[in-house]
Specification:
Elements (H helix, E strand, L loop, with lengths): L4 E2 L9 H10 L18 H17 L6 E6 L2 H13 L11 E6 L2 H10 L4 E7 L23 E4 L1 E2 L4 E2 L15 E4 L16 E5 L10 E6 L16 H6 L9 H17 L1 H21 L4 E2 L11 E6 L5 H10 L2 E2 L10 E4 L6 H17 L2
Parallel strand pairs: 1-13, 3-4, 3-5, 5-8, 8-9
Antiparallel strand pairs: 2-10, 6-7, 9-10, 11-12, 12-14
Helix pairs in contact: 1-6, 2-6, 3-4, 6-7, 7-9
């Protein structure tokens, strides 16, 4: 019997092939006599895992040599504090409070702005709140500060289902500040234009593996500017100088991420995954748009390929819809409590067959009315 299709927004589905490989290694990794969870992070066995994982990630995402790959903890929420503690003073006068610009396009970028106010002058450069976060503010309309040490955006909003399909070009806007992106929920779903990015961060639990690992990719020239209050374990330069081993890293999560990276390479890499993700998203959005029962609120030009929120026009049918979906092996479709409705997260590990099964159910439920 095949496994159910898990549409959870995170922690999210992991490819079955990866899970089976991890299960086979559970008691004895490659004849070492230890499972990965039991290994010293400073031992040669985990050292080999770490080096391979970092190498595969650099290859997959085509990360340039001048960027450091950091394996940290705390998730995206912690990075909302760690980023300003590391970058906000970069261009400020000694002892002065730094400035950073934020573009708010949904719940997660709003959290970033709010958290940063504790550590710097966090400026709202643009917001899509007036339209309910259903579209993206045009970069030309952003009110960017000349004093900003960085500009931060969330390139895929997991709750509202809004995605930057093209990264903003700050240089074209006359802005010299580096772009910081929270790419938690669409990392490794498509190539990254690193020429437009200064720093990227994301929790692993949506597209890279289990919760516990936080990925940070930072340009070298942005390191070494941490505020005095920044804990040593969160100082990017210290973490980079110690190869992410300043404190014990999330070893098992790194190992699983490494298996995911190898799986992604076998799938054909980022170009192949992007094409697959476009096909999955197109199939699902077309089913929603052609329906008389379901609808999506997001502007088609910025709809997320990873997180698809949708609503039933008759919300009295919500419970019946979810119960019927579960009975058909379609799990975790309830929308986030802050916006309601439904949400299908169709990350890399979700096969086309899973999306097709959901589309078939959408059609059947609409015909029968539950």
């Amino acid at each position: 019997m095949s496994r159910p299709f898990n549409f959870s927004a995170g922690p999210a589905a992991i490819a079955e092939e990866v899970l089976r490989e991890a299960a086979a290694d559970m008691l004895d990794w490659h004849g070492s006599g230890m499972g990965v969870m039991e290994m010293s992070h400073r031992g040669p066995e985990f050292g080999a895992i770490y080096q391979q994982t970092q190498s595969d990630l650099r290859e997959l995402l085509a990360i340039p040599a001048q960027f450091k790959i950091l394996f940290m903890q705390g998730g995206g929420l912690a990075e909302n504090a760690i980023v300003p503690m590391n970058l906000s003073a970069r261009t400020a006068a000694p002892g002065a409070r730094g400035t950073a610009d934020f573009v708010v396009t949904g719940s997660w970028s709003q959290k970033s702005l709010q958290e940063a106010t504790k550590y710097c002058n966090a400026q709202l450069a643009a917001s899509s709140a007036p339209n309910g976060h259903t579209s993206l503010p045009e970069p030309a309309s952003w009110q960017l500060s000349s004093k900003a040490s960085y500009v931060q955006v969330c390139t895929n909003e997991t709750i509202h289902g809004v995605e930057f399909h093209t990264l903003p070009d700050l240089a074209a806007l006359g802005c010299n500040a580096p772009l910081v992106i929270d790419f938690s929920s669409h990392v490794a779903s498509r190539p990254v234009d690193w020429s437009r990015v200064g720093l990227a961060f994301g929790g692993a639990q949506k597209n890279l593996g289990p919760a516990g690992l936080t990925l940070v990719v930072a340009r070298e020239d942005l390191l070494g500017h941490a505020l005095p209050i920044c804990p040593s374990a969160f100082d990017y330069k210290i973490v980079a100088d110690n190869q992410s081993m300043f404190n014990t890293p999330p070893t098992y999560s790194i190992y699983i991420a490494g298996l995911v990276f190898q799986w992604l390479k076998r799938q054909g890499g980022m170009a192949a995954m992007e094409a697959r993700n476009i096909a999955k998203a197109t199939l699902l959005y077309e089913a929603i748009d052609q329906s008389q029962l379901y609808y999506n609120k997001v502007d088609p030009h910025c709809r997320s390929r990873m997180n698809v929120p949708f609503y039933l026009r008759d919300e009295r049918l919500n419970d019946a819809f979810l119960a019927g979906a579960k009975a058909r092996g379609l799990l975790q479709l309830k929308g986030h409590k802050s916006v309601g409705g439904m949400r299908a997260s169709i990350y890399n590990a979700m096969p086309l067959a899973g999306v097709q099964a959901l589309v078939d159910y959408l059609h059947d439920f609409e015909k029968t009315g539950g």
